[in-house]
Amino acid sequence: MFKQKKLIVANWKMNPQTLKEAREIFDAAKKTAGTLKKSEVVVCPPFVYLPALAQGYKGKRLLFGGQDCFWEEKGAYTGEISPKMLKESGIAYCIVGHSERRALGENNEIVNKKILAALKTGLMPILCVGERERDQQGNYFSFIAEELREGFCGVSRTQLLRAVIAYEPIWAIGKEGDQAATPRDMHEMGIFIKKTLVDIYKTKQPPAVRILYGGSVDAGNAAALVSEGETQGLLVGHKSLNAKEFSEIMKHVDAI
Ligand code: PGA
Prior knowledge:
Blueprint: E1 6-11, H1 19-33, E2 39-44, H2 50-54, E3 62-66, H3 83-88, E4 91-96, H4 99-102, H5 108-121, E5 124-129, H6 140-151, H7 157-160, E6 164-167, H8 183-201, E7 210-214, H9 222-227, E8 233-236, H10 243-254
Parallel strand pairs: 1-2, 1-8, 2-3, 3-4, 4-5, 5-6, 6-7, 7-8
The chain binds 2-phosphoglycolic acid.
């Protein structure tokens, strides 16, 4: 069912500090991405670096992503960037609803508006979902179901296939690799996400939407999170800024 390529997304967040460093990290990622056979790499730099990095880049194995977008097309929205502007700058994917944005006040309703706007413009949204902590009773599952249900409200079955879901448990973000979720945690959550999509979309089979894992991915845990976790890829934060380690992550995933 999942014939798509594996997706390795680099979320640079508000890093690095200079365009010079950004170019170095990007050039290294580009080099390894060019050797991959079964994976696609998406680099999500801060918006200001995009034009410089995208200029003259014609490769196909590495694409650009935004870290966020606004839901309106244009107008008096100081500080915001529209999906259309992103598309015009050569962006293919857009992260939506990252927990660091939700922590700044973004709720499911806002996330939903952004998902719809991104899809309408032709961007492929990467919807981030994830619980703050896990409770013994397993209530975090209903929290994830709600993020999916509300995040995809009004998204048609066809549109859904252009979306990507990243399961990023907040408790596992920004740590060392041994504190990431286990492949078993991911496997279980992947099944739950598919079951929830079946419920929402009333389909017999789970819709073929790619599900990624994110949260302290490193070169040591990447392969298992994809193979044993049965995901279609990874969302990599701080390790995507380390050229050598990110290159290893890409190679490990591609070898699966
Ligand atoms: P991390 O970040 O890899 O640094 O944990 C992942 C993310 O927040 O997208």
